[in-house]
């Protein structure tokens, strides 16, 4: 059997939702989500061709952006409301000259919660002959459905009418997401769904088919879950304090004692981890490569190779530095820039691997890192969403045991008005992983705003002395500044609370003296039946709450009250 053809048909027109297949769910368009799921399935199955079939250039461009082929334009007569989906599939097979032994996998973009793993499971269930379809448990059993006949309700399934829910047989529905069949059957005019023949594969997640704007809202909410990873027993994700990394980077200046001082400063500032950078210059940089503008400004160096060679952190230093970090109660981390150093760091027994923004599109490197058995924190500076998706797919296909992303603006220092911190929420929604901020803005404002949008990890450059020579010292915090910013982040986290709208302990005393209570607008005798004119609302230490206003009208006073006295007792 050849590798599958993953066909994603998306039409430009839509009656219910204009531009439906370009609408986002958790930050990614419907067509983008379908392509991404197909690519994950192809990785799991060892290959496959992902094709977006459309009449619309915007949809075709979006498909290509996420990694699909768009080798043809769907003809106009197959892009109408009346065109049959099987006609579209047959046209695709003919146009693509699809070999007869190719599994054909139809993926509908309007089912955005389907996963690549589920698509792969459907393909694995296909034996080359009998079609396979994705199904999910029916949320509402058919026995609960009725039709209206001559103004009265009639059960749709009379034989099951009145049956207790627990006695009903399990019911399933098509998810509308995945169909797998043979070229021969499709060309012969057969459908994927053949009652009594087609095999089901049950999707155990939420399955939403997008037919209305409300469906988009539901799908978006379901896709935005609360992910977390665990590092040495420490939970990282929504609802937990941010994991704080003090980025020493290259600020050791090739000085072992300076590296130790950086570790001490990070621990004293309250960071959870200190991070350096590890590379062999010959494996990452061509001799004579130019330095970045900020590096030239800081050091005057124009040869990147020479600068990097002078800033290498020797392999021999790593173990004693890691031991020193453990001794002061802080995690030791380092970012590798090539696979040899990544393997070396994994051999040291580090708890996780941080990968920098420069490697976001280095998929062979990410594949190697993903196979090392460590959780990965991946920075996404300079990247587009589809590039992040390709990196995430690569790491997950390689078996990475945990993944988190950093939003990052790769400028040093980064301008505050370009920090784009709402991208933190976008990344979390799109990839359902914890997301942090690799913060290159010197002040604390970006970090505090990031706490508000849900920052799970925070990374900040620091140094022992900003006047030291070197490319990163000038844009780094000094120890006292790092400590102050960490304290500000922790204070901001405390200010978030748990989100439940209830009176806080600090409010109880104020509530008692400023909330109004019912008082008598005039002196009233026992047995008086209260009217609205009898009542006034005043701040008072006693009396029924003003919210009881309407409920006491028409009731009878059990005791006499004087002018402006609180009303405390009535009877119906």
Number of strand elements:
24
Per CATH, the class of the largest domain reads Alpha Beta
Counting H and I runs of at least 4 residues, what is the number of helices? 18
Largest sheet: 8 strands, parallel
Could you please say which CATH topology of the largest domain applies here?
TIM Barrel
Percent in helix: 25-40%
Structural notes for this entry:
The radius of gyration is 32 Å and the shape is flat. The strands form 7 sheets. The protein has an 8-stranded parallel beta sheet with strand order 15-14-13-20-19-18-17-16. Strands 4-1-5-9-6-10 form a 6-stranded mixed beta sheet, sandwiched between helices. Strands 2-3 form a two-stranded antiparallel ribbon. The protein is 31% helix and 19% strand. It has 3 domains: 219 residues, Spore Coat Polysaccharide Biosynthesis Protein SpsA, Chain A (Alpha-Beta Complex), CATH 3.90.550.10; 255 residues, TIM Barrel, CATH 3.20.20.70; 62 residues, Type Iii Antifreeze Protein Isoform Hplc 12 (Alpha-Beta Complex). With 572 residues, it is α/β, with parallel strands linked by helices. α7 runs parallel beside α10 and α7 runs parallel beside α16.
